[in-house]
């Protein structure tokens, strides 16, 4: 299997996490699912996913995953366990919704980004921003094979080139082209209300849309 990955851990098993788990299973990976409410609340999802899936605590999912997906509401990132994620590639799918998360001053004044907040809490992990600009149901319904004309593309951002390559390989396997938006600090270019947040863009359209992104202060 590419990159010698066998298992993907999930901290958060909501809409995006469960859809990514389905893609992972379809592509031959094992998954370890977790949420804040306990493994027993994931029985139905595990039954659906099958023999290559199991439920666990967030700490166990973080420990088990060769790559770990963090897909929890932004207000809950303080609960993401740091120790078992040391040295690992961590995919951050989060977006900032003040009506859900409450106001976070450093995001409101745009002095940092959602993924940089997570990176601050996981200083020894390699954070890659991905999968936050696509509707959850599109992850499984819009995936296509490499080389498909007009194949949808997803942007990524991160500070570690090896981690970004790992995530890019997964995204390609899962059914999408990849556009590298640059370092983690550039992840804001595909956050909510930007040109590439939501639309079914191919790689050229994503590359065109990223530089057109405006800071929220500039939208007022």
Question: Which features does this protein show?
Answer:
single chain; 220 residues; alpha/beta; eight-stranded mixed sheet; 10 helices; 32% helix; 16% strand; P5C_Rdtase_cat_N; NAD(P)-binding domain-containing protein
What does this structure look like?
- It is a single chain.
- The chain is α/β, with parallel strands linked by helices.
- Helices cover 32% and strands 16% of the residues.
- An 8-stranded mixed β-sheet has the order 3-2-1-4-5-6-7-8, with helices on both faces.
- The protein is globular and about 45 Å long.
- The protein starts with 6 loop residues before the first strand and ends with a helix.
- The mean pLDDT is 96.
- Keywords: Oxidoreductase.
Secondary structure blueprint with pairings:
Layout: E1 7-11, H1 15-26, E2 30-34, H2 43-49, E3 53-55, H3 58-64, E4 67-70, E5 89-92, H4 98-101, H5 105-108, H6 114-121, E6 126-129, H7 138-141, E7 153-158, H8 161-174, E8 177-180, H9 203-209, H10 216-219
Parallel strand pairs: 1-2, 1-4, 2-3, 4-5, 5-6, 7-8
Antiparallel strand pairs: 6-7
